[in-house]
Amino acid sequence: MQYYRHLYLTEGLKKKKSKIIEKLENNKFQMNIHIVTLANNKQNHLEIYHSAVLLQLNFPHDDFFVVGIAKDYEDALELVEEIVQEVYNETKGADIRSYILRKEQEE
User: What is the four-CA torsion angle of 66, 72, 78, 82, rounded to 10 degrees?
Assistant: First the structure.
C-alpha cells in the first residue's frame, strides 16, 4: 500500500497515525479502522474499506493508494465529504483523482 503524503485523518487519529499504518502494513486486526483509497478503476473516485478486509488471503492491497484513515464507517463518509469539498473549493470541479495525484507530486 502507498499512503498519501497529505493523509486525511479523522479526529483523534492524528497521534495514532504511525501505529495504525504499522498495523495495516503488518496485517494486524483493527476493530474500527476504515481506509479511504483511490478507486482501482478510473470511473470511480474513492472507495472505503474496513481494515479487516485487508486481512483476507489474496486480497490485492498492494495496489491501494490510501488517502484517508477513519475510526468508523460514518467518519469515513465524513472524510470523503471533506475531501470532495476541498477538491471543489480548490478546483471548482470534482476530479478527485487528478487533484490528489497532483498534490502528491508537489513539494
Answer: -30
Res 40: pLDDT = 85
Strand partners, 68: 8, 36
Q: With beta carbons less than 8 A apart as the criterion, state whether 37 and 67 touch.
A: yes
Between the alpha carbon of residue 101 and those of residues 29, 37, 61, the distances in Å are 29, 12, 18
Cβ-contact 87, 93 below 8 angstroms: yes
- Contact present, 46 and 96 (Cβ < 8 Å): yes
Locate 33 and state its grid cell.
479502522
Residue-level length of the chain: 107
pLDDT tens track for 81-99: 999 999 999 999 999 999 9
- Single out the residue of 38, 97, 102, 94 nearest to residue 67, CA to CA: 38
Measure the CA–CA gap between 107 and 104, rounded to whole angstroms: 8
